Hints:
Number of helices: 7
Helix content: 10-25%
Oligomer: single chain
Mean pLDDT: 96
Low-confidence stretches: none
CATH topology of the domain at 17-169: Metallo-beta-lactamase, Chain A
Largest sheet: 8 strands, mixed
Strand content: 25-35%
CATH architecture of the domain at 17-169: 4-Layer Sandwich
Amino acid sequence: xxxxCSVCTSTDPRDRRLRCSALVQxxxxxxxxxxxxxxREQMLRIDFCDSLDAVLITHEHxxxxxxxxxxxxxxxxxxxxxxxxxxxxxxxxxxxPYCFVENRYPGVPQLKLHEIAEGDKVxxxxxxxxxxxxxxxxxxxxxxxxxxxxxxxDMTEITEKSRxxxxxxxxxxxxxxxxxxxxxxxxxEAAVKFSKSxxxxxxxxxxxMSHHLGLHAQEDALLPSHIHLAYDGLVLEF
Length: 238
């Protein structure tokens, strides 16, 4: 807000970088990956009137969980399960106690927390999900392998165990904040290097870019042909 840089004043809708979140769909199964403070605006933009089967949380930082209260329309029929690591579950209960107390006030989101850790596997319909562990600066957080998709955000490093669990993926979605180094997020160059370390031509989409990364059209053109910047509203089939 209040910035007049070339990205923030761009008329290209791909340069309007909201907090990252993803919706994975397979048949009638719908999984939400992270639920940031822009969740409501993002969902109003798309044609989606179905139910959510689960929410997968990478970590408890506000830009990834600030929209949880807006999940209430998807909890009228049944409690909506939220999967997160123990650290995130603890902090969600502290920040949103009214959502997780035993006797909840009428109208609040009906949510149910489930703790998961690196290597845990859960099936949602026909979608297999495996929890990964990556390091966000010094903080261990989760990434997810969803079928043959790997969704990793806020990573600076990855454990060897989780790297092994990425073998055979067909699509990588991974963070790249900017070109300049950052203490808790990897650069675009590091994201490209990581993608190539998994497979030479692995289709890859970079997320979690700040406005310090230049215009979408210019930056995307500089990337290898199999690697792209993601943007709000992008739909991928895999």
